[in-house]
Amino acid sequence: MIPESCKLEDESLLFLSDVLPTAYWSVENADVKPGDTVIVLGCGPIGLMAQKFAWMKGAKRVIAVDYLDYRLEHAKKINHVEVFNFAEYDDMGEYLKEITRGGADKVIDAVGMDGKKTPIEFVGQKLKLQGGTLSPLKIAAKAVRKNGTIQITGVYGGNYNNFELGALWIKNITIKMGQAPVIPIMPKLFEKMVKKEFDPKEIITHKVSLDEAPNAYKIFNDHQDHCIKVVLKP
């Protein structure tokens, strides 16, 4: 798929394997349209790119939510989005509903079960009673407007308790989810990069050698040194 004449940097092409197709598909699958208000939960690599692609689809307002200030600052810097730290609000979902005057048209969950857990969720997961956190979906259920769409891109596995199905049912919410069909999307994204429509290297915060990989994984896992995306170079 990548011609030998390609002049793009390796770091750009690297993300064609997962991050870019997943983020792009999330926005496409959510059916983001011009004029939409879009909330993206999570400012990791996929969340950051989903924010960018939402703008490219014509969204009039893009809001980013996370609990790590450095990731929110990065989102604001590269994507010019409104940012909110959910740890600073008693009810993030209700607040988002209020400032969007009834809720966002589309909410994209780019967090999944490995997001920040409540104490009860943490214990439940340790006892294998709970797959992980449901916090992103609880925020999404409140933040999406009536007849809106929630796109679940973050990974959820196992069983879940206290899922607020009624909150979604009463608002006629459309829920879409799953794994991105990566391969069919690659050519389209490659062409967009060739045309310089976006720069995926903006999500990179660290470049290290393979010898430094163990420490790089620790930095990434422990949220040290403002780490968002690490590229290992041979």
Low-pLDDT stretches: none
Give the overall shape, derived from the CA principal axes: globular
CATH topology of the largest domain: Rossmann fold
Total helices: the number is 10
Question: What would you say the CATH architecture of the largest domain is?
Answer: 3-Layer(aba) Sandwich
Mean of residue pLDDT?
91
Broad CATH class of the largest domain = Alpha Beta
GO molecular function: metal ion binding
Keywords: Metal-binding, Zinc
Domain Alcohol dehydrogenase-like C-terminal: 45-112
Pfam families: ADH_zinc_N
Describe it for me?
With 234 residues, the chain is α/β, with parallel strands linked by helices. The chain folds into 2 domains: 10-177, Rossmann fold, CATH 3.40.50; 204-234, no CATH class. It contains 10 helices and 8 strands. The chain has helices at residues 10-14, 19-29, 45-56, 69-79, 92-99, 119-126, 135-143, 165-169, 182-194, 213-221, and strands at residues 37-41, 61-66, 82-85, 104-109, 144-152, 174-177, 206-209, 230-233. The strands form 2 sheets. The protein has a 6-stranded parallel β-sheet, with helices on both faces. β7, α10 and β8 (230-233) form a beta-alpha-beta unit. The model has no long low-confidence stretch (mean pLDDT 91).
Could you give a short description of this structure?
This protein has 2 domains: 10-177, Rossmann fold (3-Layer(aba) Sandwich), CATH 3.40.50.720; 204-234, no CATH class. Helix content is 39%, strand content 18%. It has helices at residues 10-14, 19-29, 45-56, 69-79, 92-99, 119-126, 135-143, 165-169, 182-194, 213-221, and strands at residues 37-41, 61-66, 82-85, 104-109, 144-152, 174-177, 206-209, 230-233.
